[in-house]
Specification:
alpha+beta, Pdz3 Domain, 7-stranded antiparallel sheet, 6-stranded antiparallel beta barrel, 12 helices, 20% helix, 31% strand, disordered N terminus
């Protein structure tokens, strides 16, 4: 006969065996987490080794500027009892009954007018060579009268500007030092969404601050010509000019901008791709300035409606709105209304791609350019010129010619274009809009516009324009090439029954 303790022990053994069997049966058909889960989800990346290799190559940059010193009473000549009144009422204020003194045409400098140097701002930068060349943003150093670089060891050096490029917001500066460790330059073209990146800089003057995040988007178009890298790395004022670093410890961008309503980090920061930066740096180092290519066109976006109306398979390319007289594009035969699809063998997926491709092409180089014109592809050869400031010609103020056709299915009355306007605009045909109503008014056409093309047919005059309009289908939009001032654009209008 078994004792109570022995019975209890036997029962516990039976229950343990049953429990183990049930657990084994339950888990037999389930996969092991360690076998199926990606290794990257098991732990966060360790940034310490990357920071240790790169942090010493990042510098703090502070700048100063000169401001006038105000004497007592609000300006030079503080001993003048009426100076306070001039501060409020302007420099020409004179007390009643007092005549203003005669002005000396060659006044001597006032010894009391002085300037003092004050702090202007802080930013970041990083070494790109062992002999002291530093990259930063142009907005960090512009309009300053002193640039001071502080290393991580606390030593401070005065820097000189080698060259700046406001268009890309890049500045190359240098300090007198040897043997520093430069940051290795990476390849921003190989970046992918979701990739880990680090920012090192001096947010709010707090030097050697490290933040981490991922690449949120690539080739982010913000209205500028640069294709920014968008990240969620915490970047604040003072981070400008600092490096964006991948996990290999290579620079893939320069932190440049934040999108914020508060002035501080809100989850979106933008960096200039290092590939774009280095193209600028080579020229700044060699010449102190950047020379860019130019073909002399004004361009705009191709909308889905316009692409469909002119026969493109999708919205792509850069629509030419104006061609500068005598410019390389003009000599190559580019016409307003053309859509540039390729430049030097590279596709123009978005209209902002064209300025970048033209800009990096060496002036004097002849390259092929593919354009879409009247339903087919035309290949032109253009000799790239050098970029310079061009002033646009003022729009013609000449009044329209008399006699207009009645409103058509587009809601337009048109007349002949005066010959003097044709000669000035260098156009052969077209019609001048003298009155506009719906649907053309809703589409944006205005009185004084010149219509050059309907779909893929050139307009020669009012009678021929009327025939083209009469043949238009009311089931889909027609594309009109419209010249307004010096700008040409495609406008889509659906005729009314």
């Amino acid at each position: 006969m078994l004792s109570t303790c022995a019975v209890d022990s036997k029962i516990r053994r039976i229950m343990a065996s049953v429990s183990a069997g049930m657990l084994l049966a339950f888990t037999a058909g389930m996969p092991s987490y360690a076998e199926t889960a990606p290794a990257s989800t098991l732990s966060m990346p360790d940034f310490t080794s990357v920071v240790a290799k790169t942090e010493g190559s990042v510098v703090n940059i502070r700048t100063t500027e000169a401001v006038p010193v105000r004497t007592p009473m609000g300006g030079p000549g503080g001993d003048d009892p009426y100076n306070m009144f001039r501060w409020f009422f302007g420099p020409d204020f004179m007390p009643p009954g007092m005549k203003p003194p005669r002005k000396n045409p060659n006044p001597a400098p006032n010894p009391k007018e002085k300037e003092r140097t004050v702090p202007r701002g802080v930013g970041s930068g990083f070494f790109i060579s062992s002999d002291g060349y530093i990259l930063t943003n142009n907005h960090v150093v512009e309009d300053s009268n002193g640039i001071f670089v502080t290393l991580t060891n606390g030593k401070e050096y005065k820097a000189k500007v080698i060259g700046t490029d406001p268009r890309t917001d890049i500045a190359l500066i240098k300090i007198d030092i040897k043997g520093v460790t430069p940051l290795p330059i990476g390849d921003s073209d190989k970046l992918k969404k979701g990739q880990w990146v680090l920012a090192i800089g001096s947010p709010f003057g707090l030097d050697s601050t490290v933040t981490a995040g991922i690449v949120s988007a690539i080739n982010r178009d913000t209205g500028d010509y640069l294709p920014f890298i968008q990240t969620d790395v915490a970047v604040n004022p003072g981070n400008s000019g600092g490096p964006l670093i991948d996990l290999a410890g290579q620079v893939v961008g320069i932190n440049s901008q934040i999108i914020s309503q508060s002035g501080g980090f809100m989850g979106i920061s933008l960096a200039i791709p290092i590939d774009e930066v280095m193209r600028v740096v080579h020229q700044l180092k060699a010449h102190g300035k950047v020379t860019r290519g130019r073909i002399g066109v004004q361009i705009g976006e191709v909308s889905d409606d316009v692409a469909k109306a002119i026969g493109l398979d999708k919205a792509k390319g850069a629509m030419v709105s104006n061609v500068a007289a005598g410019a390389p594009a003009d000599e190559a035969g580019v016409q307003p209304g053309d859509v540039i699809l390729k430049f030097n063998g590279k596709d123009i997926a978005h209209w902002t791609d064209l300025p970048r491709l033209v800009g990096v092409t060496k002036p004097g180089t002849r390259v092929p350019m593919e354009v879409w014109r009247k339903g087919k592809t035309v290949t032109l050869s253009v000799k790239v010129g050098e970029m310079s400031d061009q002033k646009a010609e003022k729009p013609s103020s000449e009044s329209p010619a008399p006699t207009a056709k009645p409103l058509d299915s587009l809601g337009l009355k048109v007349t002949d274009v005066p010959q003097s306007v044709r000669a000035k605009k260098k156009i052969k045909g077209g019609v001048l809009v003298s009155e506009v109503s719906d649907p053309a008014a809703v589409a944006g056409i205005k009185e004084g516009d010149i219509i050059l093309t309907v779909n893929n047919s050139d307009v020669s005059g009012p009678d021929q324009f009327a025939k083209l309009v009469a043949k238009l289908s009311t089931s889909h939009a027609a594309a009109l090439l419209v010249l307004r001032g010096d700008q040409t654009q495609w406008v889509t209008v659906t005729p009314e029954k």
